[in-house]
Amino acid sequence: MLNKRFLIAFYLILIFSIGLSCIVLGQGGGEVDKFIKDLSSPDDDTRHSAAWALGNLGNQKAVQPLIKALSDKNENVRAISAESLGKLKAEEAVEPLILRLEDPNWAVRVDAASALAKIGDKKAVPPLIKLLQDEDETVRATAVEALGSLKATSAIEPLCKALKDPEERVRQTAAKALGDIGDPQAIKPLGEALLKDKDDIVKIGALESLKKIKSKETYQYIIKALNDNNAIVRSVAVNVLSIIGDKSCITALEKRKAIEEDPEMKKEIDKAIQTIEKSSEN
User: Is the sign of the CA dihedral 39, 52, 118, 142 positive or negative?
Assistant: First the structure.
């Protein structure tokens, strides 16, 4: 009897899970129609919930209604509609989303920029570059991230300028974006950020991006970072040189080891030298 009850319970759970999966994957057409209708509700919360649900259902039938919802009177509905269009990767929403980059509400501008990055249309690059001048740091950081995601080489110069943004978050994101793009034009600005920025998190971001660019021009900056006052920055610099694996960097590592006071850091340097020597043999 116990086994029979267990099997019944198991099958009920299985049936429920399959049904739920169908809804989440957008197979429940009736659900989509219901939520599209809810976008016209006089209640703000109902419209917001509907826009959120349509993004998660994944049905392209929702694209045009969500584009219309980008002009909703409620900023929260506009924001979640932009987010949902990004989830749907709706190419026909590119132009309407670009218009939302000038929305009076900062959250709408953020979600519109993120959505454009997910859709991946390079048409969004010029307006995203313009957004780097936004008064809100979250908007600027999101625009920077979007440009990095789009690998927008035309944005190299403005992204390099973003390395000097007054907000740490924007500078850190700019460093990462330049590494994602991987253009050698960014080496000097990233090197200067590595050596001069006041925040260690930005320095670490610059190090990681210099590693991605893979050019001997980066070595001079990474080697200088071995003498940074912050132990974590020095550790990341050692690791980056280890990954680069160029034998010409061993002398700099040995010099750092000679003056390094932290015994754990000395071990890291030894390990890095061994890794470089081993990779040079292969």
Answer: positive
User: Which residues does 170 contact at the CB level (< 8 Å), separation at least 6?
Assistant: 137, 140, 141, 144, 162
Burial class (CB in 10 A: 0-12, 13-18, 19+), 185: middle
Q: What is the token pair recorded at 188?
A: 């000097």
pLDDT in tens, the chain (282 residues): 445 454 445 444 543 444 445 444 444 567 899 999 999 999 999 999 999 999 999 999 999 999 999 999 999 999 999 999 999 999 999 999 999 999 999 999 999 999 999 999 999 999 999 999 999 999 999 999 999 999 999 999 999 999 999 999 999 999 999 999 999 999 999 999 999 999 999 999 999 999 999 899 999 999 999 999 999 999 999 999 999 999 999 999 999 999 999 999 999 999 999 999 988 776
For helices 44-57 and 2-24, the axis angle rounded to 10 degrees is: 100
Query: What is the secondary structure of 115-156 as a DSSP string?
Result: HHHHHT-GGGHHHHHHGGG-SSHHHHHHHHHHHHHTT-GGGH
Q: Which two tokens stand for residue 240?
A: 């980056």
Contacts of 226 (CB under 8 A, 6+ apart): 234, 237, 238, 241, 252, 253, 256
CA geometry: angle 142, 102, 91, nearest 5 deg: 70
Amino acid letter, 104: P
The DSSP code for 74 is S
CB 52 within 8 A of CB 82: no
- For residues 145, 171, 80, 153, the Cα torsion angle rounded to the nearest 10 degrees is -20
